[in-house]
Amino acid sequence: MASVPRPEAIRPEGLRPEAIPPEAIRPEGPRMKENRKMDAIRPNGPEATRRAIADAAEELFRRVGYSKTTIVDIASKVGMSPANIYRFFRSKQEIAGLICTRLTNAMVEHCRASLGGPADATERLSAMLLTYHREARRLSLENRGIFDLFADGLGHLWPEFRRLHQSMAALVGQVIREGVVQGEFKVDAPEEAASLILRAVVAYVDPRHITRLLNDSAVLGEQEHMEADFLAIVATLSRGIRP
Fold first, then answer.
1. How many whole angstroms separate alpha carbon 17 and alpha carbon 69?
2. Quick one: angle between helices 159-182 and 190-200, nearest 10?
3. DSSP letter at 157?
């Protein structure tokens, strides 16, 4: 019986690779290029792609401006179509919200780290709130695009900033409870006291108010002493919760 050739050994004459003219090869289209770029940025699935989109958006916010940056700009930066962006985020605000979460989480962690210093609860409270003020001031002055992002989020009560207040209230409440245990503070409702303290210092931890205070000092030709004023307010509040 004659042997039957293997299928892979059968190659019609017209399909020899060396016989295909270059002009017959279809050029890579925009969709193929986009797919290759997306494959490069999503090695770990949708979350990696979301992070890549947020990274691109933050860079544009800082360089071009928050209000001037569009979904089209972000899509072009990442290397995908605007329609593909909407597969991962419902809107520009949702992308901005993720960036705000990153930045505010970093603020909270800096504040948490400051609690590892003084053993005195009053000093810990002051150190933590001062860190909060400095981080908010840094964000106010560091980049106009990020300032505008925060101003929009705070002005429209985005959930990211409600969570920031809750996280900071939890840290302040923790210090107050420790102070009660140590006999430094006398407070019946530490969580309520923490929220009230944060509301009392809002002008020094809200970038919009910080820039207004700085502008007022510049217009009046006065030396600004915001940090000294802030510490004096915190000291007054601390005396209010002592026995």
1. 47
2. 120
3. T
- DSSP code for 242: -
Residue 45: predicted pLDDT: 84
Residue 21 DSSP class: -
Our count of domains for the chain comes to: 2
CA separation for the pair 94, 101 (Å, rounded)? 11
Mean pLDDT on 186-210: 96
Residue 70 in this model has a pLDDT that exceeds 80 = yes
Q: Domain limits at 125?
A: 93-240
Task: Clarify whether residues 80 and 36 are in a common domain.
Answer: yes
Same domain? For 141 and 186 the reply is yes
Pair of tokens at residue 6: 């293997």
pLDDT tens digits for 122-143? Answer: 999 999 999 999 999 998 899 9
d(CA 51, CA 54): 5
Per the CB < 8 A criterion, the answer to whether 127 and 117 are in contact is yes
Higher pLDDT, 190 or 41: 190
Residue reference for tokens 């360089």:
63
Please tell me the predicted confidence (pLDDT) of residue 44. Answer: 62
Structure tokens at 59: 């860079």
